[in-house]
Amino acid sequence: MFKKILIANRGEIACRVIKTARKMGIATVAVYSDADADALHVKMADEAVHIGPAPSNQSYIVIDKILDAIRKSGADAVHPGYGFLSENAAFAEAMEKEGVAFIGPPVGAIEAMGDKIASKKLAAETGVSTVPGHMGLIEDADEAVTIAGDIGYPVMIKASAGGGGKGMRIAWNDAEAREGFQSSKNEAKASFGDDRIFIEKFVTQPRHIEIQVLGDKHGTVLYLGERECSIQRRNQKVIEEAPSPFLDEKTRRAMGEQAVALSKAVGYHSAGTVEFIVDGDRNFYFLEMNTRLQVEHPVTELITGIDLVEQMIRVASGEKLSFGQDDVHLNGWAIESRLYAEDPYRNFLPSIGRLSRYRPPQEGTRPDGTIVRNDTGVYEGGEISMYYDPMVAKLCTWAPDRLTAVDAMSKALDDFEVEGIGHNLPFLSAVMQHERFRSGRLTTAFIAEEFPDGFHGVEPGATSARKLATIATYINHIIQSRAVQISGTIGNHRRVIGQHWVTTVAGKIFDLTVDFLVEATAVHFADGTMSTIAGQWQPGQSHAYFSVDGERIGVKISHSGIGIRLRWQGMDLIAYVREPRVAQLARLMPVKLPPDTSKMLLCPMPGIITFVAVKEGEQVESGQALATVEAMKMENTLRAEKRGTVKRVAAVAGQSLAVDELIMEFE
Questions:
Q1: Where are the domains of the chain?
Q2: Residue 187 pLDDT class (50, 70, 90 cuts)
Q3: Would you place residue 467 in the very low, low, confident or very high pLDDT band (cuts 50, 70, 90)?
Q4: Which among 278, 295, 294, 298 has a CA at the least distance from the CA of 286?
Q5: Domain 600-666 has CATH 3.40.980.10
Q6: Hey, which CATH number is domain 462-586, 3.40.50.720, 3.40.630.10, 3.30.930.10, 3.30.700.30?
Q7: Residue 184 and which of 74, 217, 416, 660 are 20 to 30 A apart at CA?
Q8: Which long-range CB contacts under 8 A does 483-489 form with residues at least 24 apart?
Q9: Which CATH architecture has domain 332-457?
Q10: Distances (CA, A) of 471 to 457, 475, 498, 553
Q11: Mean pLDDT value across residues 448-470
Q12: Which CATH number is 4-103 given?
């Protein structure tokens, strides 16, 4: 067995590998860029080696720098994680020449499957069902348009060396094919150093389901069930689960056997994933094989009990798998939610900054038998950088059945406290409550179809509004009680807390009376109904549990002016608890309007302007591309919302801008 493993990666996957290596008694070496000097994986590893500047193309994906770190540390094995160099055949070959074990598949398998064009040809030859498409290289945008027209729209434009949603675009017409081709090439070049592009038919109403495979160096290859990864945004997975709520045993076996056949055809060993698109009739088509550990591997670990990182290490050291296909059993259900540093209220644009508060839910088995797991690479006080992928953590839950796992995830998301950056926790919570998701009726178009105008928060229904009004009123009573204790008695007069209050939640007004009892507080509504509430919240706590009519509710709490900010199940609102006369007067207060920025193009996220498409004095049409901003390895094209004339261009290509910094003005 290895004595020391170098992890050629960063963030949560580096931390994940370190945890298993530590459990196995193996020392670890972290590598880090300038931006990651204080990163969690650096703190966790037994030793760390600096490898260069912040941009990944000057540090994490420079093979010579990784080799130098190996020599300095004396590591006898390297785990590449995912992304960066994990599917780089030249890197695996360099490890072989260096005499260092590569904890991954053989070079030949990476070469065969890493090229998405060659892999589809090989899959077809092996008898694996494939999607129609053009597998040859495409020289320019004109050829891309011609090919797309021959295949028939819609088409998927993909980077040959791609993965993780990078270098992927869906085109529904010639204009989108032309633009998508160039954007895909640019992203592919920036992310993988390889700008080759191919095009295939986009299957409408598809489900993205993948098979986990695991093989050793002695000819054994197994499949460990499937993962459903259909909840995606911009081809980036957001929520995954295992098993799939759609597959039957017959389809699962057929997909698994084809995945194993393809793996054996390339002499595969280590962990890998064969991805399929599945239509509504359970016909499945090969997409690609990822010759590495997948981001979403924890859900497979939770339902199989198999530590995939440990198996990768054992396989790389030459051990045989200690179990066979008949020993693989799928137990219960697991859900994974990816916490991204993306602001859902700003069309999921990347967000950077300091994590002023980062409190994940408690990991482990809960009293109800469900399990919570959180794979992360950050900590409170740490920085989210613009240089790397925006994923902050992977929150996972396990339960005996799907709905219980979903409910456990909903509660865990409510418990997760993140402040200082924009993040997608509210959106993840909203999906957990969505009827279509809960029923398992998924496609890769779920987010586009259910949130066509973006995410603007969750409006509370009548029942939820009453619960939050009850909580806000209870919190207000505690605040008032504290104020009485502080102010004490003035002369012969002692301040008395009123019982009659008017609580406003999301525009809903509740006239109510409060009875503060010994074991619980009774809140009487004007319609004659009553709610009881109990809790242990104290002023200053940012999260607390309340029992409302017997239901345990975890809510994030903060002050917003004279209001109380409450966040729960995707809802984010300000509750106002006022005395009746104050509430009456508050309705007369004018509403302050936000400043008018309708004639400005502001940078929607911190990033680098890579291209300015217009000049001063130029007339633009609605939908026309104005500029391109790159952040967290993704290109974002900014378009005109309406027809107008450019008055001033305030930014140039190569310039770094902060959020809401001016790019251009219009007349």
A1: 4-103, 105-131+207-331, 133-201, 332-457, 462-586, 600-666
A2: confident
A3: very high
A4: 278
A5: no
A6: 3.30.700.30
A7: 660
A8: none
A9: 2-Layer Sandwich (3.30)
A10: 20, 6, 17, 10
A11: 95
A12: 3.40.50.20
Exposure string of 99-121, with b = 16+ CB inside 10 Å and e = fewer, is ebbbbbbbbebbbbbbbbbebbe
pLDDT of amino acid 518:
74
Distance, in Å, from the CA atom of 182 to the CA atom of 49, rounded to the nearest integer, reads: 37
Point out which residues pair with 213 in neighbouring strands.
Answer: 223, 272
Nearest to 161 by CA among 51, 52, 288, 46: 288
| Cα distance between residue 417 and residue 479, in whole Å | 22
Q: Indicate if 462-586 has the same CATH topology as 4-103.
A: no
User: What single-letter DSSP state applies at residue 484?
Assistant: H
288 is catalytic: yes
Of 56, 19, 35, 26, which is closest to residue 8 (Cα–Cα)?
56
Q: How far from the centroid of its chain's Cα atoms is residue 667's Cα?
A: 39
Gap between the Cα atoms of 628 and 611, Å rounded: 5
Distances in Å between the Cα of 597 and the Cα atoms of 98, 187, 477 are: 57, 30, 40
Catalytic residue chosen out of the listed positions 111, 200, 288, 296 = 288
Q: Which residues contact 614 (CB under 8 A, 6 or more apart)?
A: 620, 624, 626, 627, 646, 649, 664
Say whether pLDDT at 166 is over 90. no
Tell me the C-alpha distance between 279 and 265, whole Å.
Answer: 26
What is the reported pLDDT for 305? 98
The domain at 133-201 falls in which architecture?
2-Layer Sandwich (3.30)
What would the two tokens of residue 214 be? Answer: 């695991």
Q: How far apart are CA 469 and CA 575, in angstroms?
A: 7
Query: Are 640 and 622 spatial neighbours (Cβ–Cβ below 8 Å)?
Result: yes
Residue 129 structure tokens: 């069902």
- Torsion sign (Cα): 348, 352, 353, 359: positive
539 C-beta neighbours (distance < 10 Å), count: 12
Query: Could you tell me the pLDDT band of residue 578, with boundaries at 50, 70 and 90?
Result: very high
Q: Can the peptide bond before residue 243 be classed as cis, meaning omega within 30 degrees of 0?
A: yes
What is 105-131+207-331's CATH number, 1.10.10.350, 3.40.50.720, 3.30.470.20, 3.30.70.1120? 3.30.470.20
- Asked if 274 and 286 touch (Cβ cutoff 8 Å), the reply is yes
24, 87, 170, 203, 274 from 294: Cα distances, Å: 21, 11, 23, 23, 10
Give the chain's largest Cα–Cα span: 94
The whole-number average pLDDT for the span 474-497 is 77
Among the listed residues 334, 227, 569, 573, the one whose alpha carbon sits nearest the alpha carbon of residue 431: 569
Neighbours of 452 (CB within 10 A): 7
For residue 165, name the pLDDT band (cuts at 50, 70, 90). Answer: confident
pLDDT digits (tens, 9 = 90+) for 167-180: 889 999 999 999 99
Asked if 565 and 623 count as a contact pair (C-beta separation under 8 A), the reply is: no
| Burial (Cβ within 10 Å: 0-12, 13-18, ≥19) of residue 33 | buried
Closest CA to 636 of 665, 667, 666, 659: 659
pLDDT of the residue at 491: 56
* Predicted local distance difference test score (pLDDT) of residue 494: 66
Interaxial angle between packed helices 63-73 and 89-98, expressed in degrees from 0 to 180 and rounded to the nearest 10: 30
